[in-house]
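Below is the record:
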Amino acid sequence: MNKVFIIGLLTTILLFPQYMFAQNNSTDRMALQPKDQSIIAISALTAKGDLVNLKPALNKGLESGLTINEIKEAIVHLYAYCGFPRSIRGLQTFMEVVDERKEKGLIDETGPDISPINNEASKYDRGKQILAELTKMPQDGKPAGYAAFAPVIEVFLKEHLFADIFERDILTYAQRELVTVSVISVIGGAEPMLRSHLNICLNVGLSPQQLKEFVDIIRSTLGDKEGHDARTVLNEVLKAKNLD
């Protein structure tokens, strides 16, 4: 047998596992992890107030590897976008799920608590810094639009939403953005906000393919209309960035 052929064959055999490992890693980066898929479904159903379907989604989330504290944090986070009533009902439903699972002998991981925030800067400055990091844009310009019309909401936005909430750990920025775009997709009529946060999703490392998968989950969880509306805005975002 030709020596060159034999050497080539041996090289292929030796390198094939490495090639497959690289391919699998690439695929993993393109697809949303099961935990993140569950975060989307849990957030969407909580925001919609669909507590019947929320229960199996919460069970699936725990089974996907989400800790109790991660799910609690996602449900707490979403109150900023759809209000206390939806968030609190989501938490109450989650309490029922955890208790029911304990009765069945299923003990779920609680996970780490929120880390203390040791930052002496004002909450406004901290929120401004986080917003700049998320949007990849400086936040030192003169207030315009709604921020100029009602300056207090701009203060609330930076001090509370981006300091009090986004500064907390347990969830990554990418996971918090998945919560956010899920809720905005539910409430409807907020396309400029959805557009803005889909752009932030790209900024914090989510890929176009992962965002397309997000839309598929919204469609399967909520319905064709919500999925279509989310896909329309996503297409606009990706086209503007030449990522479609």
Summary: The first helix runs from residue 3 to 30. Residues 4-28 have pLDDT under 50 and may be disordered.
